[in-house]
Design goal:
Length: about 425
């Protein structure tokens, strides 16, 4: 049986589910297709190991969609402070005062109540699925992936692997970094795998819920702390947190092979003394990290959004925030196409979307790479640059605030000091 829609969104992850909801709220008929079943959430269960730092901009977007009350009704932890510091010894250490290698942003100083929220991905996705499910115009197809795509003159036919066929005027590939839709549309990617991998751990610690996220940089890579919610009456005076440890794949394999008690003790020693006393390790997983950018954001009747178009180094946790910005931009462009009575796959309209989003996504990639290179490269001039960069950010309240506002997704302008530094890093101009 064939079903016909204005738009088929393939991938109901955070980006696809948000986009489908927004499009349907604007009156489009939308098929929302995901090979996975609905995400689960149990209030008493341990947190999802995948968490995201949702920016103030993403919070506003989720408010508009009507998903934010569901998110906060489940679990979301606001953070008011964000600290970044450098622990890498180098030949110039003695010359650069320590205060120039530390930056702390505080919501109060930025005239805002919080810098962002740490939210489990399953919570955001679940909330968006609830809102999408309650929005007339969204039809879910779950549990079966897309296996074929046939483009005709005025529509695309998608074949799901259970034999269902879905017709749409436009297909959005929101199916993640390994996008099948991107492959079926013949869109290539440029990809760079980083030498480091990221290990993510869900832990309980002694003490109240913290209001700070921090990241310390070490020669082998950064180590980060993201606060989560209280561990509840079963574990009084304990809270949950997500830790991230970037290191070589070999070192992470050694750490992952340790018994939990030994790994907890190793983390406690390896992380800064600021880390509260850890009491329990619930789960751990490691991920390769890569920078990837699609060569085009659209082809024919297929357009990409979120990780299928771009994946960035998760250092500052901006991946899903960029994806939400893609979704908002694409929704606006498609609304304009409909108002002008144009085909939703009009190449000029889709080019307008790519013209707006590609430079913004590339800018964030460059910023993440700038941090990555500055903090993982021990060549003295690069260290000097790094310290000058952070020093400038710290010493000048204006620059510091601008850096923070950009990282938080409040501003979409990259501070000039970062643009200048990015341009000095070799190999970053090919994206
Ligand atoms: C270690 C790590 C830490 C991160 N931390 C952060 C952070 O703090 N903040 C942040 O913003 N980002 C973070 N990110 C990035 C973030 O997780 C991604 O940017 C985000 O999940 C992308 O969302 P998406 O909806 O585009 O894709 P995905 O979340 O990958 O969703 C894709 C969806 O498509 C479905 N799908 C796939 N193939 C098919 C198919 N053939 N047919 C049908 N459905 C299909 C999948 O089931 C899935 O539901 C991190 C990433 C990593 C690796």
């Amino acid at each position: 049986m064939t079903h016909a829609y204005d738009i088929a969104v393939v991938g109901a992850g955070m980006v696809g589910a948000a986009l489908a909801t927004g499009l349907a709220q604007d009156g489009f008929t939308v098929a929302l297709i995901d090979r996975a079943p609905a995400p689960e959430f149990a209030p008493d269960a341990a947190p999802d190991i995948r968490v995201s730092a949702l920016s103030a901009g993403s919070e506003r977007y989720l408010q508009q969609l009507g998903a934010w009350p569901q998110i906060t009704g489940m679990r979301a932890t606001p953070y008011r402070r964000l600290a970044v510091w450098d622990q890498t010894p180098h030949p110039l250490s003695g010359l650069v005062p320590r205060k120039f290698t530390e930056v702390e942003f505080d919501a109060t100083g930025l005239g805002t109540s919080h810098l962002g929220h740490i939210v489990e991905n399953a919570v955001t996705q679940q909330a968006l699925w609830q809102v999408a499910g309650a929005t007339a115009g969204v039809t879910f197809f779950t549990g079966h992936g897309v296996s074929a795509l046939t483009e005709r003159q005025d529509k695309v036919t998608l074949a799901l692997d259970n034999g269902t066929q879905v017709d749409a005027n436009l297909v959005v590939g929101a199916d993640g970094g390994q996008s099948k839709i991107r492959e079926l549309a013949g869109i290539g990617v440029s990809r760079d795998q980083y030498a480091q991998q990221a290990m993510v751990l869900s832990v309980r610690y002694q003490g109240p819920v913290e209001d700070i996220t921090w990241q310390g940089f070490y020669p082998s890579g950064p180590r980060a702390f993201l606060p989560l919610h209280s561990a509840g009456p079963e574990h009084p005076d304990e809270s949950w947190a997500s830790l991230v440890w970037y290191d070589s794949p070999e070192q992470l394999a050694r750490l992952k092979a340790m018994p939990d008690s030994e790994l907890l003790a190793t983390i406690q020693k390896a992380f800064p003394a600021t880390l509260p006393l850890l009491t329990h390790l619930d789960s751990k997983a490691s991920f390769p990290i890569a920078r990837q950018h699609a060569s085009r954001y659209f082809s024919g009747r297929v357009v990409l959004a979120g990780d299928s178009a771009h994946t960035i180094n998760p250092l500052a946790g901006q991946g899903v925030n960029l994806g939400f910005q893609d979704a908002q931009c694409l929704q606006t462009v498609l609304k304009e196409a409909r108002r002008a009575n144009q085909d939703l796959a009009d190449p000029d309209r889709l080019a307008q979307y790519e013209r707006q989003r590609r430079p913004a996504n590339r800018r964030m990639m460059l910023t993440m790479d700038l941090f990555y290179h500055l903090f993982s490269n021990r060549i003295p001039p690069v260290h000097l640059l790094r310290n000058l960069g952070l020093g400038a950010a710290r010493a000048l309240p204006f620059a510091r605030n601008r850096v923070a506002r950009y990282a938080m997704g409040i501003d979409d302008q990259l501070p000039a000091v970062l643009t200048q530094l990015a341009n000095r890093i070799p190999g970053l101009n090919q994206l």
